[in-house]
Amino acid sequence: MKTAFFAVLSLVATASAFAPQPSFGARSMTHLFSGGKYEGQLFDNDAKKDVYAAWDPSQPRSPLNFNPFETWEGNSPDASGFYPGEGGYKDPIRGDVSFQKMMDERAESEQRAANPKPGDVPGAPGCRN
Questions:
Q1: Is the distance from CB of 66 to CB of 77 less than 8 angstroms?
Q2: What is the distance between the alpha carbons of residues 92 and 38, in angstroms, rounded to a whole number?
Q3: Spatial separation of the C-alpha atoms in residues 62 and 106, rounded to whole Å
Q4: Structure confidence by residue, pLDDT tens digits, 3-29
Q5: Global model pTM greater than 0.85
Q6: CA atoms within 13 A on the CB side of 98
Q7: What is the rounded average pLDDT for all residues in the chain?
């Protein structure tokens, strides 16, 4: 009796492995964005300034339209506009840094903050926040 029970149980268990699986509700990972202008290249301050110059806050955010100086939870984006923890994030190739370069970049950052681009407001399509 026990052997018949286990035989039937094993048939039912193996049969379900060959049954078609429903795809309803299944999630597949798709990458909507791919490849920023500087992906795989040096993404230093000059490259960020180039990306920033082309950024239009009124247009939807994309790998070619994002603010490279915008931070999210304390992190900077990669060369395609993704942040650490997001699916498409790739650690950018960074340039050498010195104290003087950091001070120069800080002055530029303060200038950018004092003179934001038109349309650079929270909730704009090109902004992360």
A1: yes
A2: 9
A3: 26
A4: 766 666 565 555 545 555 544 444 434
A5: no
A6: 3
A7: 83
